[in-house]
Give the backbone structure.
Amino acid sequence: MTGHTETEEDTHEEAVAGVPLGFEGAEANVGDHIAHFFRGGDQRFSVLGPYIEAGLRRGDRCVFISQPDVGAALCDWLAERGLDAAEARAADRLILDPGRDTEDDMKRLADRIDASVQETNESFVRWAGDGEWCLDRDITVEEMLRWEALYDEHSSEWQLLALCQFDLAVFESDVIMDALRTHPYCVMGEVVVPNPFHESPETVRQELAGRHRD
């Protein structure tokens, strides 16, 4: 990076590689796009909660895309562990967002958040999303999945680390399969592993577009 000493560059590299996810020593790298499939609120927060808690305790900026009640439940979960979610939100360290109505608008949101990393000299943003956010918006589940594939396509460009969650009790098997296809990594138990079902985002987006035309 221009204008940084070798020591500062090394520090930056350490900051964006081997990022702790907060559960059982699991780590990931900035740019990783991770899916977590769960059933019910307890399983949701067994991964999401520690992921956001670890970020706030490290001083990371955290973004959570979800329905408002899920965001509120996350704040309660954090409060039970001694974290002041209201203070974190006021300091712009925890951003709760209900999502947008088109994939283009979602990309603009990610672009804006990524740009803020450069403006504030932060290493990355810890991004999370609960797939049910689309159910409260005008965006369709299919378009939400196209957004997931678009995010996958740009993940190497953005300084974001993303954890995306999908409730097996809410989404049908075809949605879950497409969610698998759009995430290079998955949470299995308490570890993150490469996802053998992952496909190129271009392929998935073209197929989803074809389904819409049919």
Remarks:
- The chain has eight helices and nine strands.
- The two ends are 47 Å apart (CA to CA).
- Confidence is low (pLDDT under 50) at residues 1-15.
- The longest strand covers residues 160-167.
